[in-house]
What we know:
By secondary structure, this protein is an alpha/beta fold. The protein is built from 18 helices and 13 strands. Helix 10 crosses helix 13 (310-317), helix 11 packs antiparallel against helix 12 and helix 14 packs antiparallel against helix 18.
Amino acid sequence: MHETTHCGVRKAVVLAAGLSSRMAPLSNGQSKAMVRLGGLTLIDRCVRTLEILGLEEIVVVAGHDIENLSRHIGRTERADLRLIEAVDWQEGNGCSLAAAEPHVGPDELFILVTVDHVFSVETLRHLVTAQAPAALIDAAPTLPEWCEGTKVIVERGRVAGFGKELDSPAIDCGAFVLGADIFEAHRVASGRDDHSLAGALTALAAVHAMDAVIVDPDTWTDVDTPKDLSQARARLRRSLGKDSDGPVSRFLNRPVSTRISMALAHLPISADLLSAVVAVFAIGAGLLLAAGRGVAGGIAVQAISILDGVDGEVARLKLRTSERGAMLDGMLDRVADAAIIGGMGAWALATAPAEQVVWITTVALAGSMLSMASKDRAKLLGLPAAPEGWIGWLLGGRDGRLLLIALTAAAGLPVLGLLITAITSLLSLGIRLAYVMRKE
């Protein structure tokens, strides 16, 4: 899903020309831009992030290993993507920036990012909406990041200076909104025999201060070494959780599902296919329960609960989330719920009076469906969100209900499992409706 930018920023320049000798143990002589993180090369991750934000033209500046990078970009067949060569890239990344000057209008603002800096979409959105030259700033970097990074002086929300030698606690994050005057600043810095991007920015800051956009330190990563890449993978995996996750998802499901997602992300498997596979497994779990195989069925149900997060996590890793994918996932989740609850009901018929089982199963199934439907409908209509944290701790979320079904199935108590499912579903439905219907 692409957004529309809300200011004059329509173009992005991506610097991907460097040799990156420190990444050589993993890059095997290739451009660092081809190193993979979360199933995507760094260049693909950067370009997709910019595309999601609605950038209409993306200029990639290459130097080292340009032939390989050109072939890779050529396979994407993106009309909005252009590769140019920085002939003197070895002089410094400021020279790489200078190669983009013919592709930037004299009165045009553009976003500048370096391919080895990884950002969340939300972090770069702050730059896309900037109305003037700006820089992303980390005001609380780790010690290694501070030692490695370009320090910045921030005064009253403005960047007044850049420099490796500064003693300021803040550093830039390698992402900027700039105007064409950055190219003149590069020429000034080059006249002092400083061909670095930091030198150009320092020269620019001496004439024009930039807006300082302070970001969360956990939303960006500088990938210079194999150790950096390992840390970036760990940070990316942790980012796959959601604020709405209940305790079951947060402490049990996500630690497993996110590791599975990271392992699958490099494969050519779509999130939609993963959703369908999980739904098929859920039908199998329902059949196990219907056959009275409580332990196997319970294990299968909890496995389904864990795997249910993989499709969305893979989509987020590949920056391929979409409304259609979310709709398919929601529909298949309801199919899975029906199969599991129906299986418990069929098993319960052999252990309790039929009329009682039918009523409990019907209420459990209807409550489960309505509970999730109310959540999705409230989100769609922009209505007040229920306190999902409370619902999660009451085991009223889907992850909690599936865990309760798994435990009662393993204990050989299908009727109790259905009864608890009915109660928790109706409880969560009631809470969500109360928050939506309450008067302002």
